[in-house]
């Protein structure tokens, strides 16, 4: 809920400008360049256009994938893009950051038959990018309803909800704790996945529908309260995401040189000149999800000589997909499995090494083996997951707003246990914390809010 803290990079071997200036642009360029027209047509014509398409079932937002691909095959790119955005207003970002290998492309019939699925993500980007580049917004607002809704959180869930509510004719105010809207797309995704300020351009595109007021630097519990929002607005949607970072709970965690991966990524994404961002020579990343992969690869691309990612379980149990793990290894990241941190050791007041104990599964539980090893490190990044901070809700003494597993409890219409309050995205107790799921939950909540307000 707070702004990203400035990380102090002080240490014997933490410096900026490790690479030649030209290398930064090369290392952080788009990892999936857009398809040319000829490439898109060839790829689209590989599709079987299945009647009961498993790729649609695998897409949390239910995009008509064979339908939009068929439009590309007939050179109707605008029609393809509109079909995508009708289901997922963040179709551009999801084309870039979705784990398509385990969603739509993983379910592709071509993948089952030949091991070579249709490049659905790249085709989706091919279709949506031209629409996002237009000066005018492609969707019209509905007739004004006179209803006002407050949306807390300017990430994918909140903006998806806000856009659909505006489309339905409601007036929306978005309250975002950080200086810019966009959520993880703006602050938390690797730069090479959404380069050239794409996340900002997509936010501008979404706000282009009109009827959405953006209030940045407005944190729930600090600048606004849920009780006040409930009083001032006809409905409230909570889409704050996960603001907390889980602790390692080991000795030396607070040493200089130890940082949260999400904070460093946010600083990297906001940097005007990557050559001025200091990075260590030997980096250790602790975690196994997408954030762990993103920080490991990005520090390597910033010029770190050695980057080692350590995860307490095996590769098949990592939150990052096998595709992401392979990508990290191709980029020079060493991945070590079956080890947990036990101590971060200092020299001259700065982290110098990370000590680990090897692990194994015993009677279904993860246990230490007693064997230990040490990795030299001048930077250590914690990437073991984020958590929901309920303090802003508790200050309103709303005992009726229930939490489950540390997140907000909602029903199948994303209504919370407090009347007039809905929630969606990473802060709710359902789903897999994926951008595409947050978009769908925000959209579904908007329709539930609309139905409630219209009686």
In DSSP terms (H or I, runs of 4 or more residues), the helix count works out at: 18
* Helix and strand composition category: alpha/beta
Shape: globular
Low-pLDDT parts are: 1-5
CATH topology of the largest domain: the name is FAD/NAD(P)-binding domain
Count of all domains:
3
**CATH class identity of the largest domain:** Alpha Beta
Q: Can you tell me the CATH architecture of the largest domain?
A: 3-Layer(bba) Sandwich
Helix content: 25-40%
Rg over alpha carbons: 23 Å
Q: Total number of β-strand segments?
A: 19
Largest sheet: 5 strands, parallel
Q: In the CATH hierarchy, what is the superfamily of the largest domain?
A: FAD/NAD(P)-binding domain
- End-to-end C-alpha gap: 33 Å
Mean pLDDT: 93
Query: Which strands sit side by side, in order, in the main sheet?
Result: 4-3-2-5-19
- The percent range for strand residues is 15-25%
What is this entry, summarized?
This protein is of the alpha/beta class.
For the structure shown, list the relevant keywords.
single chain; 455 residues; alpha/beta; FAD/NAD(P)-binding domain; Fumarate Reductase Iron-sulfur Protein, Chain B, domain 2; 3 domains; five-stranded parallel β-sheet; disordered N terminus
Word description of this protein:
The chain has 455 residues and is of the alpha/beta class. It folds into 3 domains: 14-18 and 246-385, FAD/NAD(P)-binding domain (3-Layer(bba) Sandwich), CATH 3.50.50.60; 45-132, Alpha-helical ferredoxin (Fumarate Reductase Iron-sulfur Protein, Chain B, domain 2, Orthogonal Bundle), CATH 1.10.1060.10; 148-243 and 388-453, 3-Layer(bba) Sandwich (FAD/NAD(P)-binding domain). It is built from 18 helices and 19 strands. Strands 4-3-2-5-19 form a 5-stranded parallel beta sheet, with helices on both faces. Strands 7-15-9-10-11 form a 5-stranded parallel beta sheet. A 3-stranded antiparallel beta sheet has the order 12-13-14, with no helix packed on it. It is globular. The model is unreliable at 1-5 (pLDDT under 50).
């Amino acid at each position: 809920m707070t702004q990203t803290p400035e990380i102090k990079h002080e240490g014997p071997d933490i410096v900026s400008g490790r690479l030649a200036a030209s290398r930064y642009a090369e290392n952080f360029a788009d990892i999936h360049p857009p398809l040319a027209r000829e490439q898109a047509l060839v790829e689209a014509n590989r599709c079987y256009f299945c009647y009961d398409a498993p790729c649609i079932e695998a897409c949390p937002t239910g995009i008509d994938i064979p339908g939009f691909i068929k439009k590309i095959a007939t050179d109707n790119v605008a029609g393809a893009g509109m079909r995508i955005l009708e289901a997922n207003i963040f179709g551009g970002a999801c084309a870039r950051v979705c784990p398509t290998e385990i969603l739509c492309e993983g379910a592709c019939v071509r993948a089952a038959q030949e091991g070579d699925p249709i490049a659905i993500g790249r085709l989706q980007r091919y279709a949506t990018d031209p629409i996002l580049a237009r000066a005018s917004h492609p969707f019209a607002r509905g007739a004004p309803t006179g209803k006002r809704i407050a949306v807390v959180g300017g990430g994918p869930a909140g903006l998806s909800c806000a856009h659909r509510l505006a489309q339905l004719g409601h007036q929306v105010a978005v309250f975002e704790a950080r200086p810019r809207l966009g959520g993880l797309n703006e602050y938390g995704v690797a730069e090479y996945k959404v380069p050239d300020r794409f996340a900002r351009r997509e936010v501008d595109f979404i706000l282009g529908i009109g009827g959405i007021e953006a209030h940045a630097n407005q944190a729930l519990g600090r600048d606004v309260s849920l009780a006040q929002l409930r009083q001032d607005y006809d409905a409230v949607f909570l889409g704050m995401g996960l603001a907390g970072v889980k602790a390692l709970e080991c000795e030396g965690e607070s040493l200089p040189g130890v940082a949260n991966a999400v904070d460093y990524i946010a600083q990297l994404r906001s940097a005007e000149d990557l050559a001025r961002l200091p990075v260590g020579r030997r980096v250790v990343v602790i975690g196994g999800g997408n954030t762990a992969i993103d920080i490991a690869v990005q520090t390597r691309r910033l010029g770190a000589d050695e980057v080692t990612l350590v995860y307490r379980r095996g590769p098949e149990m990592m939150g990052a997909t096998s595709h992401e793990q392979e990508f990290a290894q191709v980029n020079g990241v060493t991945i070590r499995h079956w080890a947990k941190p036990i101590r971060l050791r200092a020299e001259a007041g700065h982290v110098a090494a990370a000590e680990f104990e090897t692990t194994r599964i015993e009677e279904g539980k993860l246990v230490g083996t007693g064997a230990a090893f040490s990795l030299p490190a001048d930077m250590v990044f914690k990437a073991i997951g984020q958590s929901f901070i309920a303090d802003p809700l508790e200050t309103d003494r709303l005992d009726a707003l229930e939490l489950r597993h540390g997140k907000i409890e909602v029903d199948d219409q994303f209504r919370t246990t407090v009347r007039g309050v809905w929630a969606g995205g990473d802060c709710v107790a359902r789903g897999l914390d994926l951008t595409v799921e947050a978009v769908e939950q925000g959209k579904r909540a908007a329709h539930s809010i609309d139905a409630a307000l219209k009686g």
